[in-house]
Amino acid sequence: xxxxxxxxxxxxxxxxxxxxxxxxxxxxxxxxxxxxxxxxxxxxxxxxxxxxxxxxxxxxxxxxxxxxxxxxxxxxxxxxxxxxxxxxxxxxxxxxxxxxxxxxxxxxxxxxxxxxxxxxxxxxxxxxxxxxxxxxxxxxxxxxxxxxxxxxxxxxxxxxxxxxxxxxxxxxxxxxxxxxxxxxxxxxxxxxxxxxxxxxxxxxxxxxxxxxxxxxxxxxxxxxxxxxxxxxxxxxxxxxxxxxxxxxxxxxxxxxxxxxxxxxxxxxxxxxxxxxxxxxxxxxxxxxxxxxxxxxxxxxxxxxxxxxxxxxxxxxxxxxxxxxxxxxxxxxxxxxxxxxxxxxxxxxxxxxxxxxxxxxxxxxxxxxxxxxxxxxxxxxxxxxxxxxxxxxxxxxxxxxxxxxxxxxx
Length: 409
Ligand SMILES: [Zn+2]
Prior knowledge:
This is DHS-like NAD/FAD-binding domain-containing protein. The protein is an alpha/beta fold.
């Protein structure tokens, strides 16, 4: 059953749905959460696609560089020296904003799920690390993190310190300390100089691969095998191809392993396209924090939760009855088909027992042979389907922020 509602709809309309979702989350033991920029907007970090705020900060220092919000996150900018300087200034300003930001109700909600032992994993597209408070191993940062910087040459990793931030603000990437030490040592030994790397924020840009792609791919495959019972997708407009594929696989795992009680929930200010009709059981239009608050209120409302439990039981009973009816109908159809087949065979025997020309006898034989091979083929095909794993577990690693040019995050 598909349910769509908006958090701004009248309470009498949305109350049962909110209660059903609250009950579903209360009983979940393995929830997977996937988050996007939408869940951080209330903490003061603008959505880079729609906001000019950050870009305006950069404009003062680099008045001649024309870069739109999305282009500031595209690896292509490294081809242009001015744009690269602009990128570093932008990252410094973004770091300041992140430093001032506080986790929202949604971030706290995810943390609480982890504390209650209900969170299998949180996958985030956000680089602000606001989920990171206590999630630790339960967090996978799909697009990297603004907590770290790494060397463009040797991949050495360091904390994104205030000193580095000041250098980035001037558009000057700092030299990599490890490369610098190696170079000093070479000079001391009288060896020739080698190239030295610079530091950059450890975020994954569009059109570049995630350095930890294999690890992320492994985490995704492992989580799918762990039979998640609930998937919540929040604050993302579902435009990144790799993420879309992953959400669909995770949703399939929830539905296949928990056909009666597994739920896939989408919460965002904008509606998903038709492509997602069969993926999400619930589409909640609105602010993620508002939905979280409504859900937490329902958790305290024992009467509403009890009613939701009864509704779920009734739905399951109805589903079982429908399935039983379907099976009965199939049985009747099979019996009819069998009866027809028996009649056909009797009729055929009657025809073939009559002495006829050799041509007719051989043609009837050929027909039977074809039927046999068709049966063999179809039964081996169905065996192959049965043998297929439930999910495509080899996710080939996470390929980062790949996207079709011109599309948004
Ligand atoms: Zn280095």
